[in-house]
Amino acid sequence: MRTHKVAVIPGDGIGLEVIEAGKQVIEALAKKSGDFNFEFEDFDWSSKRYLEQGEYIPEGGLAKLAKFDAIYFGAVGSQDVPDHVSLWDLRLAICQGFDQYANVRPARVLPGVKSRLEGADKIDWVIIRENSEGEYSGNGGRVHQGLPDEIGTELSIFSRKGIERIHRFAFEMAQSRPRKKLTLVTKSNAQRHGMVLWDEVFFEVAKDFPEVEIDRELVDAVTTRMVLKPETLDVVVATNLHADILSDLAAALSGSLGIAPTANLNPERSFPSMFEPIHGSAFDIAGQGIANPVGSFWTAAMMLEYLGENTAAERLMAAIERLTESGMQTKDLGGDAMTRDVTAAICADIEAQG
Ligand code: NAD
Ligand code: MN
């Protein structure tokens, strides 16, 4: 029996609902397999905890988390805490603390899901986001606070090492896929220092991957290409900020923010990697039982694959595709199914699989 120790951080809002659903689905897969089990440990690191105790992560929290095989994360964000506080104190503290520098965001239209985009069925992308530096390096400051001459700076930091490792990761990803295409996205016409370094290092790394077909695009231009010629893209590599934006667009084009998954990987496995649906805490629908849990299921499939449970990951993806194809959909996709209906249907499918 293989045992996977997973730290669970549901966080806030619908994070609590979709992660609970995801755990049920993982339990169903473990039961079906009989060869592995999951030991979940729940962490109440959330905005509620912050408001009560003044911190998201208790002292020594990250060291405790470091002992797990993976982290299953919901979402963080509350109307009572500034978003930059919740993001930096919880999610980014983990991503940056554990050097999860490769953020992987697959996008494709699942069967039965209607996209508003014509030709969306041709979307089959993986967006690779640099997840440790760049625009989210946390450097900058404010001077003359509150005065008319106040200035705020936001400093982007790009290191050759940081750039090289994310490009190498992206090339490996492209090489492993049938079409073997990689698009470099920057803004090196307007931003002439860090972005130019990104471009240069990309073409250096490219020499080691002759099988990968490469091209480049400016970030503004690539948004139009995503909409107008979705079939021309395969793997895309971009900076922390650019890929953050592009991947939300990708999620919307492929159906709903409620479906899209993310892996925050530390590819060297020196620290645990973290898996989360792409969406936030969605306070507009929290507590109603109507959140789409498919994003957290797809996320669970990525986590299972990372943990070496490929059969279970395939079973789960097959169940997800049968579900979307069947037309059972939550409100975000135009249906009226509840989170628990979708979860029960997925568990039943898994149980019935041969
Ligand atoms: P959001 O993703 O929470 O919601 C955007 C819209 O999509 C909302 O209308 C919401 O109802 C809908 N939606 C999102 N997920 C859904 C699901 N699973 N099922 C059905 N509908 C879904 O983004 P937001 O409204 O910009 O942010 C809300 C809070 O979440 C903010 O505090 C923000 O900082 C935070 N946030 C956190 C993360 C994260 O933890 N990784 C990511 C994005 C936003
Ligand atoms: Mn985002």
Distance between the amino and carboxyl termini: 20 Å
Tell me which ligands are bound: nicotinamide-adenine-dinucleotide, manganese (II) ion
Average pLDDT:
96
The biggest sheet amounts to: 10 strands, mixed
Helix content: 40-55%
Instruction: Quickly count the helices.
Output: 11
Pfam family, one: Iso_dh
GO molecular function, one term: D-malate dehydrogenase (decarboxylating) (NAD+) activity
Enzyme class: oxidoreductase
Protein name: D-malate dehydrogenase (decarboxylating)
Fold and architecture overview:
There is one protein chain. The protein has 354 residues and is of the alpha/beta class. It is built from eleven helices and twelve strands. The chain has helices at 14-33, 47-53, 61-65, 83-97, 160-175, 194-206, 219-228, 240-253, 294-306, 310-326, 339-352, and strands at 2-11, 36-42, 70-75, 102-108, 124-130, 134-143, 151-157, 181-186, 213-218, 235-238, 261-265, 273-277. Strands 2-1-3-12-11-4-5-10-8-9 form a ten-stranded mixed sheet, sandwiched between helices. A hairpin with a 7-residue loop joins β11 (261-265) and β12. The radius of gyration is 20 Å and the shape is globular. 46% of the residues are buried. Bound molecules: nicotinamide-adenine-dinucleotide and manganese (II) ion. Nicotinamide-adenine-dinucleotide binds at residues 14, 18, 75-77, 83, 91, 257-258, 276, 279-282, 284-285, 291-292, 295, 330, 332.
